[in-house]
Specification:
The two termini are 28 Å apart. This protein has a single domain, classed as Guanylate Kinase phosphate binding domain (2-Layer Sandwich). Helix content is 31%, strand content 21%. It is built from 7 helices and 8 strands, in the order E-H-E-E-H-E-E-H-E-H-H-E-H-H-E. By secondary structure, the protein is of the alpha/beta class. The strands form 2 sheets. A 4-stranded parallel beta sheet has the order 6-1-7-8, covered by helices on one side.
Length: 162
């Protein structure tokens, strides 16, 4: 049975960089849904499915999400169909909160990579990023809270030049 590869890490740790490297080696990315506005260069259906808050709420009400989280007022989620075993997706990006929704049986079929890069490196990366409706201080603070005590991973990357 194929394992799901889950990438997890705070903002600007390199999750998207790693995801793109894996895609170049024929891994398929399960594109998450989000209500946040797209950043410059992001493509609907490739980086995220950018949806309205109304649509996201309707998806929540109709139990379409396997897991979802609210982060900075925006909803991010993975649908049940994306998570289904028969589906071809193999790379996911999730937060610790999203990972907490994975049951024991499914967790046995997951390999979680925690991209845990030094905060100073991430700050430098975030400063150069266009983040509509967000701030550097809020991202660092929210990530600090979200990743506090996080230990549900199989591999930890700390080298910013991986």
């Amino acid at each position: 049975m194929n394992k799901r590869l889950i990438l997890c890490g705070p903002a600007a740790s390199g999750k998207d960089y790693l995801r793109k490297k894996l895609e170049s080696r024929n891994f398929k990315y399960a594109v998450s849904y989000t209500t946040r506005p797209p950043r410059e260069g992001e493509i609907h259906g490739k980086d995220y499915f950018f949806i309205t808050e109304d649509r996201a709420r309707k998806m929540i009400e109709t139990n379409q999400f396997f897991e979802y989280v609210v982060f900075n007022g925006w909803i991010y989620g993975t649908t049940r169909s994306q998570w289904a075993q028969e589906n071809q997706e193999s790379v996911y990006i999730m937060t610790p909160s999203g990972i907490s929704h994975i049951g024991a049986e499914d967790r046995n079929q997951c390999f979680i990579i925690f991209v845990d890069i030094d905060e100073d490196v991430r700050k430098t990366r975030l400063i150069s990023r266009n983040m509509p409706g967000d701030s550097l201080e809020r991202r660092i603070s929210a990530d600090s809270e979200d990743f506090n005590g996080f230990s549900n991973y199989d591999m930890r990357i700390t080298n910013p030049n991986f």
